[in-house]
C-alpha cells in the first residue's frame, strides 16, 4: 500500500475544471452572434446526421438552439454535452479547442504538423549522433 501525496504527478484535480474549460472553449468557438448560433445548430445536426450518431439521450434525432444554449451555459450542470456531441461541435466549428481541453485534463495535448516536423528532426539528429559514435568506434578498431 502506498500513501498518496499532494505533490504526485498523477494528480487528477485537473478533471474538476474540465467542464467549465470545455464550455468556455465551446463558447469561444460558437461566437456571440445569435444568427450564427442558429446556423451552428444546423451544421452540428448535419455532422451528426452524416455520421449516423445521436447527440442527446432522448428520442430527439437533432438538437435545438435551446439544447446548444444549455451545453454552452457555464452555470448549467444538468445538461452536459456527451463526447459525440463535443466531437460533432468541433467538426461543425472546425475548432478543436474543446477536445484539446479534454486532453489537457488528462495531461495530454494535440501534436500539430510543426510539432511532428520538430519531432522528426530531433529523431534524425539522435540517429546521426548514434551513427557518428558507431563510426568512431569502428575507426578506432581499425
Brief sketch in words of this structure:
The chain has 142 residues and is mainly alpha-helical. Helix content is 62%, strand content 0%. It has six helices and no strands.
Question: Could you characterize the architecture of this molecule?
Answer:
- It is a single chain.
- The chain has 142 residues and is an all-alpha fold.
- The chain has helices spanning 18-30, 34-51, 65-72, 83-93, 97-105, 113-141.
- The chain is elongated, with a radius of gyration of 23 Å.
- It starts with 17 loop residues before the first helix and ends with a helix.
Give the number of DSSP strands: 0
Helix percent reads 55-70%
Radius of gyration: 23 Å
Instruction: Point out poorly predicted stretches.
Output: none
Strand content: under 5%
List the helices and strands and how they pair.
Blueprint: H1 18-30, H2 34-51, H3 65-72, H4 83-93, H5 97-105, H6 113-141
What structural keywords apply?
142 residues; mainly alpha; elongated
Amino acid at each position: 500500500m502506498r500513501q498518496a501525496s499532494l505533490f504526485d504527478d498523477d494528480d487528477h484535480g485537473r478533471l474538476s475544471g474540465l467542464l467549465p474549460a470545455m464550455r468556455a472553449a465551446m463558447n469561444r468557438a460558437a461566437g456571440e452572434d445569435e444568427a450564427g448560433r442558429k446556423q451552428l445548430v444546423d451544421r452540428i445536426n448535419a455532422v451528426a446526421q452524416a455520421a449516423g450518431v445521436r447527440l442527446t439521450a432522448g428520442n430527439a434525432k437533432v438538437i435545438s438552439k435551446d439544447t446548444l444554449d444549455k451545453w454552452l451555459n457555464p452555470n448549467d450542470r444538468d445538461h452536459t454535452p456527451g463526447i459525440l456531441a463535443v466531437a460533432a461541435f468541433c467538426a461543425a466549428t472546425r475548432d478543436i479547442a474543446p477536445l484539446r481541453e479534454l486532453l489537457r485534463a488528462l495531461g495530454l495535448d494535440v501534436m500539430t504538423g510543426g510539432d511532428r516536423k520538430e519531432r522528426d528532426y530531433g529523431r534524425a539528429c539522435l540517429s546521426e549522433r548514434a551513427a557518428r559514435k558507431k563510426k568512431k568506434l569502428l575507426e578506432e578498431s581499425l
